[in-house]
Design goal:
Number of strands: 7
CATH architecture: 3-Layer(aba) Sandwich
Radius of gyration: 17 Å
CATH superfamily: NAD(P)-binding Rossmann-like Domain
Shape: globular
Structural class: alpha/beta
Largest sheet: 7 strands, parallel
Number of helices: 10
Order of helices and strands: EHEHEHEHHEHHEHHHE
Length: about 260
């Protein structure tokens, strides 16, 4: 199925590894030109080579930290200057550190907001004029399943990430009529470097996690990227304001 992304300009934050890298790879394979950023220059360069080989489009990469003041806005401006337009924005990045909700100080909560909330909002606000100018746009904000299912050991995530859902829902009305959509992607457990770093024995830990997932396994990054690519596509033009869980059925509630 042609997703209608050939020639579109896509920007993927956190594209150096994990879910962001997989999304960038899938969008490039669908014909999009892709800009990625990340904090590790070596990992980012490797990702840029991989993404560039996935499709016929152009690839740009920039090493930066989106929690730095002005960094999101500067990256958007640079991408539009290089590419000439902007159509797809995927906000993605590091999550807050794990721990129970009562084990942190107010300062920790401020840091969590600066890590997992503010960069997303800053990227979207900076991108909006360019999406409106293009007359076509897809905004995807990558959060966590904790926006639907609080997990006790991820207290900071439980408290800070749901704000992005409120931002997205409000933005739908501000965008109004047209062909610009905004959706939240809420991944569950996926086998990524970020997940593995949490455990001393990743293999055993992932096997234990899989026992609680109805599909019997954790996701891989390509599972997630396939969903992101659809929501970024022409075919998803009537899907906006949603929270899309990608969790193998782990969330058993009724949203």
């Amino acid at each position: 199925m042609d997703l209608g992304l050939t020639g579109k300009i896509a920007l993927v934050a956190g594209g150096g590894s994990g879910l962001g890298r997989a999304v960038a790879h899938r969008l490039a394979a669908e014909g999009a030109d892709v800009a990625i950023c990340g904090r590790d220059p070596g990992r980012l360069a490797d990702a840029a080579r991989e993404v560039g080989a996935a499709g016929p489009g152009r690839v740009w990469s920039r090493a930066l930290d989106l929690t730095d003041d002005g960094a999101p806005e500067a990256w958007i401006a640079e991408t539009v200057q290089d590419a000439g337009a902007l159509h797809v924005v995927v906000t993605n990045g590091a999550g807050p550190r794990p721990g129970p909700v009562d084990s942190f100080t107010p300062a920790d909560y401020r840091t969590a907001l600066d890590t997992a909330f503010i960069p997303h909002v800053a990227l979207v606000l900076a991108a909006l004029p360019h999406l409106r100018a293009a007359g076509w746009g897809r905004i995807l904000m990558v959060t966590s399943e904790t926006v639907r299912r609080p997990i006790p050991k991820y207290g900071l995530s439980n408290a800070t990430r749901p704000g992005l859902v409120g931002f997205a829902k409000s933005l739908v009305h501000e965008l109004g009529p047209g062909d610009i959509t905004v959706n939240v992607l809420a991944p569950g457990y996926h086998r990524t470097p970020a997940l593995e770093r949490q455990f001393t024995d990743p293999g055993a830990a992932v096997a234990e996690i899989a026992k609680g997932i109805p599909l019997g396994r954790v996701g891989d990054a390509d599972d997630f990227a396939a969903v992101a690519a659809f929501l970024a596509s022409e075919h998803a033009r009537f899907v906006t304001g949603t929270v899309q869980l990608v969790d193998g059925g782990a969330n058993e509630g009724i949203p």
